[in-house]
C-alpha cells in the first residue's frame, strides 16, 4: 500500500519511511549496567527465552524475501552485544538489512570490527554517566567513526543529571558527534516525568532530540484511536520471537518462528492515550500527526494546561541532524 500524500518520515539511516519497513528489534534481555533511570532493572534473567542464531537468521531471510531490505533498530531491555551468538547474527543479518544498534559501548570496538559493516551497521551509543565517563565513551565513538562506522549518542534527561547534560551535549557536538536527549519516564522525588519537566527542560530535550518522535513524549498530545501504520510499516520484534505492532500493544500478531508470518495490510487505530514510543511514533498518519511534523512552531503545555510562548524548532530532516 502506498504511503499517503505528503507522508515524510526519516528513520535513523535517513531512508524514507515509506521505502523501507522499520523494525524495533528488542533483542536484549540482559545488561551489565544498572542505571537508576532504567525501568528494566530487576527484570533481567540469567537465561532469557530467545531464539537461536539459526532461527533469527532464518526469520530475517524470510522477511527479506517478503518485504525487501528492512531498517532495523536493535535495542531491548539491556545490552544487545551480550546476546548469545550476536557476532554471527550481526554478520549475517547485515548482509540484507541495515541495522542501527543501541549499545552502552562497554565492549572493545576492535573485537567487533569484523561484524560492523560500514554503511550497513550504525551504532547508537547511549551515554550512561553513572557507569562510563564522557571522555571514555567519546574516545570509543571517535575510534569507530575513524574506521567508517556511523555512531551517534544519546542521554536520558534524568533530573539529577540535568545540570550537566548541556556540558555533555556540547562536548559531543564539538567533536562532530550527534547527540540526542531522551525524556525520562518515571517518578523522581514524588514527581512524574516527563510531565514534570519545566518548559526550559522540555526545550532542552527538544533541542537535543528527534522532533518527529520526542514531541509525542513531552507534549500533551493524545493518540488514542488515531490511525497508525505500526504493524504495517513498522513493528516490534521481541527476544522470544513475538511480533507486536508497537511497545504499547499487548497482543502479538505473529511470531518469528512461524514461516507463514505476515505484517498487517492496513493502518489500525492507536491503542493507547498517548504514544511513548520514540521509534514508532512516526507511524501515525492522521492529519494532526502530519501537521505536527510540518509545523514550524511547537508549544509545550504547562502544568496548568496553559501554552508557553512559541518555540522555534530546528529542521529535523536537515543533514546536520542525520546520524
Give the DSSP E fraction (strand runs of 2 or more residues): 15-25%
Q: What is the molecular shape?
A: globular
**SSE topology string:** EHEHEHEHEHEEEHHEEEEEHEE
Average predicted local confidence, pLDDT: 79
Uncertain runs are 1-18, 287-323
Helicity level: 10-25%
Alpha-beta content class: alpha/beta
In total, the number of domains comes to 1
Number of helical segments?
A: 8
Would you write up a description of this structure?
The chain is built from 8 helices and 15 strands. The chain has one domain (22-321): Aldolase class I (TIM Barrel, Alpha-Beta Barrel), CATH 3.20.20. With 323 residues, the chain is of the alpha/beta class. The chain has a 9-stranded mixed sheet with strand order 6-5-4-3-2-1-10-11-12. Strands 7-8 form a two-stranded antiparallel sheet. Mean pLDDT is 79; it is low at 1-18 and 287-323. Helix 6 runs antiparallel to helix 7 (211-218).
Short description:
With 323 residues, the chain is α/β, with parallel strands linked by helices.
Task: Throw out a few tags for this protein.
disordered N terminus, 8 helices, 24% helix, disordered C terminus, TIM Barrel, 323 residues, nine-stranded mixed β-sheet, alpha/beta, 19% strand
Question: Helices and strands in order, then pairings?
Answer:
Layout (H helix, E strand, L loop, with lengths): L21 E7 L24 H15 L3 E6 L9 H8 L4 E6 L5 H4 L8 E6 L7 H13 L3 E7 L5 H13 L4 E4 L3 E3 L2 E3 L5 H9 L3 H8 L8 E2 L5 E5 L3 E3 L9 E2 L12 E2 L17 H8 L2 E2 L12 E2 L11
Parallel strand pairs: 1-2, 1-10, 2-3, 3-4, 4-5, 5-6
Antiparallel strand pairs: 7-8, 9-13, 10-11, 11-12, 14-15
Helix pairs in contact: 1-2, 6-7
Amino acid at each position: 500500500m502506498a504511503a499517503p500524500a505528503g507522508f515524510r518520515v526519516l528513520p535513523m539511516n535517513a531512508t524514507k519511511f515509506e521505502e523501507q519497513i522499520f523494525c524495533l528489534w528488542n533483542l536484549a534481555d540482559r545488561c551489565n549496567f544498572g542505571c537508576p533511570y532504567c525501568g528494566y532493572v530487576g527484570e533481567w534473567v540469567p537465561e532469557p527465552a530467545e531464539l537461536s542464531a539459526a532461527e533469527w537468521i532464518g526469520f530475517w531471510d524470510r522477511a527479506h524475501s517478503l518485504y525487501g531490505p528492512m531498517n532495523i533498530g536493535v535495542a531491548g531491555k539491556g545490552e544487545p552485544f551480550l546476546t548469545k551468538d550476536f557476532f554471527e547474527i550481526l554478520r549475517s543479518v547485515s548482509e540484507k538489512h541495515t541495522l542501527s544498534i543501541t549499545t552502552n559501548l562497554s565492549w572493545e570496538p576492535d573485537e567487533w570490527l569484523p561484524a560492523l559493516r560500514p554503511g550497513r551497521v550504525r551504532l547508537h551509543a547511549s551515554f550512561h554517566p553513572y557507569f562510563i565517563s564522557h571522555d571514555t565513551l567519546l574516545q570509543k565513538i571517535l575510534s569507530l567513526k575513524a574506521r567508517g562506522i556511523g555512531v551517534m549518542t544519546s542521554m536520558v534527561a534524568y533530573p539529577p543529571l540535568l545540570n550537566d547534560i548541556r556540558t555533555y551535549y556540547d562536548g559531543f557536538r564539538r567533536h562532530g558527534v550527534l547527540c540526542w536527549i531522551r525524556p525520562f519516564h518515571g517518578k523522581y522525588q514524588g514527581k512524574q516525568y516527563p510531565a514534570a519537566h519545566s518548559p526550559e527542560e522540555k526545550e532542552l530535550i527538544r533541542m537535543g532530540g528527534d522532533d518527529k518522535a520526542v514531541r509525542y513524549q513531552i507534549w500533551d498530545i493524545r493518540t488514542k484511536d488515531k490511525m497508525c501504520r505500526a504493524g504495517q510499516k513498522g513493528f516490534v520484534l521481541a527476544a522470544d520471537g513475538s511480533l507486536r505492532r508497537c511497545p504499547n500493544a499487548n497482543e502479538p500478531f505473529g511470531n518469528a518462528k512461524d514461516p507463514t508470518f505476515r505484517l498487517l495490510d492496513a493502518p489500525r487505530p492507536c491503542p493507547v492515550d498517548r504514544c511513548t514510543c520514540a521509534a514508532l511514533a512516526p507511524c501515525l498518519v492522521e492529519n494532526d500527526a502530519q501537521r505536527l511534523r510540518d509545523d514550524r512552531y511547537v508549544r509545550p503545555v504547562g502544568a496548568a494546561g496553559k501554552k508557553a510562548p512559541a518555540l522555534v524548532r530546528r529542521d529535523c530532516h536537515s543533514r546536520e541532524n542525520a546520524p
